[in-house]
Amino acid sequence: MLRRIKADLDIETTDMPLLQALFEGCVYPSEVSQSFGMPAPMVSQMIVRSVKSGLVERQLDPEDSRRIRLSLTEEGKRVLESAHRYLQEGIERSGLTQEELQQTARNLIRLSRTLQEEA
């Protein structure tokens, strides 16, 4: 599935967390880093690739010119929506029931919290 997303949408799947974070309301690179527990240099690389691909825009913060604000471009929104559709199709093909999916989500959240606490 990830190969299909990469090939069809011409995006590095490792950059998807950046697009998702911006979609969810993150504006600053530090918010993206905190949201996904990723080191700042990794987020910076994702930003550079996504800006070059035309998926993300960088703008100076009007309230603090030392900060950069990020936003999805229209193309970035289209790519993210398409990726969501691919993932939804994969979930549907998995054959898991709604209850099984909810339990899986709860377990992943619990695991994520545990790993973050240990970091």
From TrEMBL:
<dbReference type="InterPro" id="IPR036388">
    <property type="entry name" value="WH-like_DNA-bd_sf"/>
</dbReference>
<dbReference type="InterPro" id="IPR036390">
    <property type="entry name" value="WH_DNA-bd_sf"/>
</dbReference>
<dbReference type="GO" id="GO:0003700">
    <property type="term" value="F:DNA-binding transcription factor activity"/>
</dbReference>
<dbReference type="InterPro" id="IPR039422">
    <property type="entry name" value="MarR/SlyA-like"/>
</dbReference>
<dbReference type="InterPro" id="IPR000835">
    <property type="entry name" value="HTH_MarR-typ"/>
</dbReference>
<dbReference type="GO" id="GO:0006950">
    <property type="term" value="P:response to stress"/>
</dbReference>
<protein>
    <recommendedName>
        <fullName>HTH marR-type domain-containing protein</fullName>
    </recommendedName>
</protein>
<feature type="domain" description="HTH marR-type">
    <location>
        <begin position="1"/>
        <end position="113"/>
    </location>
</feature>
